[in-house]
Amino acid sequence: MSAFFEHFSMTIDGEAIASPRTIDVINPATETVVAKAPDCTPEQLDLAVLAARRAFPKWRDTPLDQRRAAVAKFGEVIAAHAEDFARLFTLEQGRPLAGALAEIQFGAFWAVEVAKLDIPVLVTEDSPATRSETHHLPIGVVAGIVPWNFPFNLALWKIAPALLTGNTIVLKPSPFTPLTMLKLAELMREHLPPGVFNVISGGDQLGPWLTAHPDVDKISFTGSTATGKKVLEAAASDLKRVTLELGGNDAAIVLPDVDVEAVADQLFFAAFGNSGQICIATKRMYVHEDIYDKVAEALTVRAKNAKVGNGLEQGTNFGPIQNRPQFERVKNLVADTQSAGLTFLAGGEIPDGPGYFVPISIVDNPPEDSRVVQEEAFGPVLPLLKFRDIDEVVARANASEYGLGGSIWTKDVSRGVEIARRLETGTVWINHSMYIMPWTPFAGHKHSGLGVENGQDGLLEFTIPQTITIAKTAV
Ligand code: NAD
């Protein structure tokens, strides 16, 4: 095996840093150790934040075009090693190789596109006497914290805009999936000034240490709502700036005018892509009663034909749940659904290990107040629900503490837009799902987040406004 898969060090101040202790990274398909990752000590965390702090003034003053080139360089480096990254991704994350490669290639594209974004200057007055313009300055040291479900792209959502706007960053991947980010930082060492991009890895204690660190100016966090609340508390004492992208329980609303066979593949993917471990996956599917049976049949056939297995094996469509604690949560939800006497149209039986495998599972019209409807499953378990009229389904879709995304499926696009405007979510897709681009703002309403990622709005979250007002009179 090449060094790409064997030696993992942190990147602090442009240097390879090992730790006295390591954490095991487990392959969720086999439950064997893929590799050992450093377990960052408090002293090493201090060094990473200090390095980012020291590098900040020079990076802030680096011309924007040079920062653009550095961000675009991420794209070049990722693309040059895409196959190795994809294999490493499958080994630690579990997603089948084709899906892993898609995330890596999308990451390269993402960096290149973010590098093209503009940092606007807003002129609010230009009268004979006065000119006022608002610039957007970098904030300082950013702490980026990411989960295990999209460990590569969600990190790039933070790294690229943070660096483009002139911040420096300390990035902390999930303890379950640190390897691709450790490797990316290693490959980028020769392309960036020391301290601009630091990646540290470690166990559960590292996130709280990082968010409590007094020298961090901004936290950009993606993860669960429960952790997001803790992050916000930790940020309060120093008034750190915070962006939170949190959980979701997205509803799809399927109107009776759709051609069921034409949309069935997309509906299936919306719910079960990445084995349901997507913040914006369809987690409740509301289907009009006139076409419910047809949709149920189309999805059930697809569920029964899907191959769930080791992502390195040819023909695998869906990988395992990524880690043991999440596997236990999904198993518990499935057991609860069964003991409530609800019917599975597909799946519902969890095989013995090794591997954290859950079959594609569809629950037939469970009650609205059942756990499988109310909770974010974050696994391949979909409640399929019947509705009769639009007011009723809008109310049901909105009756959630979450407000991340949702989708509407109809031939009548203007009706779809009308319904979309009534949904309390940051994004609504019509006749597709999960379409996310570097230029499109992405936000969560209610308990799904605070602030915005991506697009110009997301870019500005890594900045702080400074208004310069000039008196035009001669002095
Ligand atoms: P998680 O909240 O357990 O962990 C996320 C990250 O936070 C990890 O790196 C973890 O080590 C770190 N962390 C844990 N405790 C911390 C603390 N007290 N302080 C600081 N950091 C801490 O989430 P997860 O299980 O890794 O990810 C799944 C969740 O993420 C789901 O709820 C999913 O919906 C959500 N998610 C949201 C988005 C989005 O963009 N809205 C995207 C992907 C995933």
What's this, in brief?
The chain is an alpha/beta fold. Helices cover 37% and strands 22% of the residues.
Strand content: 15-25%
List all distinct small molecules, including ions and cofactors, that are bound in this structure. nicotinamide-adenine-dinucleotide
Kindly provide the radius of gyration, computed on alpha-carbon positions and rounded to a whole number of angstroms: 23 Å
Uncertain ranges: none
So what's the overall shape? globular
Number of strands: 24
How far is the N terminus from the C terminus?
A: 70 Å
State the helicity in percent bands.
Answer: 25-40%
Strand order of the largest sheet: 14-15-16-13-12-18-19
Helix tally? 15
Q: pLDDT average, as an integer?
A: 98
Structural class: alpha/beta
- Could you describe the largest sheet, including whether it forms a barrel? 7 strands, mixed
Polypeptide structure, described:
This protein has 15 helices and 24 strands. The chain has helices at 42-60, 64-80, 82-93, 97-114, 153-164, 179-188, 206-212, 225-236, 260-272, 292-305, 324-339, 371-374, 390-398, 413-421, 455-460; strands at 10-12, 15-17, 22-26, 33-38, 122-126, 130-138, 141-145, 168-172, 197-199, 218-222, 241-245, 250-254, 282-288, 344-346, 361-364, 381-387, 402-403, 406-409, 429-430, 442-443, 445-446, 449-450, 452-453, 463-471. 51% of the residues are buried. It has 475 residues and is of the alpha/beta class. Helix 3 (82-93) packs across helix 4 (97-114) and helix 9 packs across helix 10. Bound molecules: nicotinamide-adenine-dinucleotide (NAD). Nicotinamide-adenine-dinucleotide binds next to helix 7 and helix 8.
